[in-house]
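Known limitations

Files may contain more than one protein. Parsers should not assume a single record per file. Below, a two-record file is shown to illustrate correct handling: read the sequence, read the token line, then continue until end of file.
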Amino acid sequence: MKSNTAHSENLTMRVRHGEAGRPWFRTERYYHTNDGWWFLTREKTEEGPFVSQLEAESELYMYIQRVKQAQNFPLT
């Protein structure tokens, strides 16, 4: 994914290609604590801990696939 950089005073914010610079807050999806690596979801959950960032990235990919699958086959 390409990105552009928007400058505001002393703050540099990366924006996605094609998006206008906006004053919103975008957080990193992955973070590290003493317990290990975690990722945040759009559903506002924290998943982890994982041994490495690579493991957290792999688990996020699988999490997204499960969410997409659930959206295609809702329980009724």
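...continuing to the second record:
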Amino acid sequence: MFKKAFIVVAIILTLWLATSYKGVDPNQTLVIGAPFEYTSQDLSKDGYIFSRFQVTETLVEIQPDGSIQPKLATHWQTSDDRLTWRFTLRPDVLFHDGTVMTAEAVVFSLQQALEKPGIIHQVPLNKLYPEGDVEVVLELEQPYRPLLSRTVPLFNRNRFSIVF
């Protein structure tokens, strides 16, 4: 009985493959090769790799000389007590799916990052919120000078796209 069932299944699979199989079109296939392996699309795990693939961007960028330059944030400022940081976002930035990068999207991404292990937990964050469409505000519990040097994954609600 088992042998007959196996033969029937094998015949059905063979017929299905013979009639429905479509080979991979090499002209429509993206092949990514790199000297490292990534295991997920979760930026908290493999964000560095995605940044190396230049799939992600950053709000600020650390230069080889240690200076910090704007990237997706046009500028940032801190309050006199260094407890409030405001980042102004570059206008007209789109995620890979065409969705506009807004302050709300950046805040969403940071909140997602806070739910996972990562370097963001070193930041003494008290409150995080968007102000309008182009400004993100971080309120800290205490001054934290290395904030700009901390990379924290940001991603679109639909999928990853940018890195802070």
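Parsers that stop after the first record will miss the second one. For reference, the second record is described as follows. Strands lie at 60-62, 68-70, 73-78, 84-89, 125-131, 135-140, 153-155, 160-163.
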